[in-house]
Amino acid sequence: MTLTPGPDGPAPPAPTIRNVAAAAGVSKSLVSLVLQGSPQVSPGKRALVVAAIEALGYRPNAAARSLTQRRTRAVGLLMNDLRNPWFVENLEGLNSTLGEHGLSVLLGDGRLDRREDERLLNTFMDMRVEGLVLVGTMPESDAMREAASRLPTVVVGTRDFDFPLADVAAQDDRHGIALAVGHLIDLGHRRIGHLSGTVGGVQELRRQSYLEVMTEAGLATMITIEPTDMTEDGGYHAALRMLEGSVRPTAIVAANDVVCLGALGAAQELGLRVPQDLSLTGYDNTYLAKLRHLSLTSVDISGRDVGAHAAEMLLARIELPTRPATEYLALPTLAVRSSTGPPPAAPPAPTAPAGDHINIGRTGR
Questions:
Q1: Are strands 166-171 and 153-156 parallel, antiparallel or unpaired?
Q2: Cα–Cα distance between 205 and 283 in angstroms, integer?
């Protein structure tokens, strides 16, 4: 049987399950059993149905199949800002692993807008997704708690939420910042500043780690913190405030690679050479840090691997929704590139008294 039209004829209608049943000489219900992979169908009948499907080019209707099987084969993913390159790498790991198990990802980007987050979460539940992935720092809401109570849920890249049966896949942020600050101290830096995020527990952990490492190294009087909104522009302005202060640091640890790019722009505007006059470290080790003309030293938190691990956790949660919640923390490493080096021979200025130049704001990914 062929349904191919002539060159000038209209496209034929898409074949239906009835067409498949007629071509195979079986009932429509038997075709349905074959499509569901039922073991109740004999090998001979199955072969007839498969041959008819291939000959007709039949493709099952996904919506109808989900109603019949009570499965949508879809996962809802809500993140706070797709513009952050770490989230894109994380999504690659999630999507790849879920795809291997026949699950598709429905992506929503709330960008910290609570009303948009709630609308997307309600849409996910209306669509009967099989699981929920929450990526990055977001304001917790009633809709989020409701969704997490009804759907298998995994939280990625943050530990801000306390949902009883939600698994967490994140990174050891204290260790990550300690690597960056320790690297700069080993190079001989003492005046090390930190451009800190303004929202969420992840940035609070990084800020606390910076304070602890500096204090333990006897550098409490050198502590300088400027808050930033985690954007390139925010990093630029925060770095300007820090570098134009009375005591200029010789090194800066940025909250992420995007903020580090802003700091690089500020240094260039002020005529500072990187790393001869100022060393810079990013965080996340995204593709931005790896660009040859930037070559940023950055903390690698394996975004793709964290995403893949989160997907495995979600699959296990879908299989057994009531199992105890688990937490996975990736151990960061430091990718050293050309944005860090020894401090300049002559220090910029005497150290100010402790606390005189500390500007600490609220501390997100």
A1: parallel
A2: 13
Instruction: Please write down the HEC assignment for all residues of 149-163.
Output: HHCCEEEECCCCCCC
Nearest to 330 by CA among 285, 300, 298: 300
Question: Which token pair is 85?
Answer: 């390159």
Sequence-distant (≥ 6) Cβ neighbours of residue 4 within 8 angstroms: 12
User: pLDDT digit string (tens) for 98-150?
Assistant: 999 889 898 887 664 556 677 888 888 888 899 999 988 877 888 888 888 89
Token pair of 28 as six digits: 């429509």
Contact by Cβ (8 Å): 253, 213: no
CB under 8 Å, gap of 24 or more: what pairs does 271-277 form?
A: 272/243, 274/339, 275/338, 275/339, 275/340, 275/341, 276/341, 276/344, 277/250, 277/344
pLDDT in tens, 35-93: 766 778 888 888 898 888 888 887 765 444 444 445 578 999 988 777 788 888 888 99
DSSP H/E element including 24: helix 17-24
Rounded Cα–Cα distance for residues 15 and 38 (Å): 22
Secondary structure of residue 249 in the 3-state scheme: coil
CATH numbers and ranges of domains, the chain = 17-69 (1.10.260.40), 74-172+303-331 (3.40.50.2300), 173-301 (3.40.50.2300)
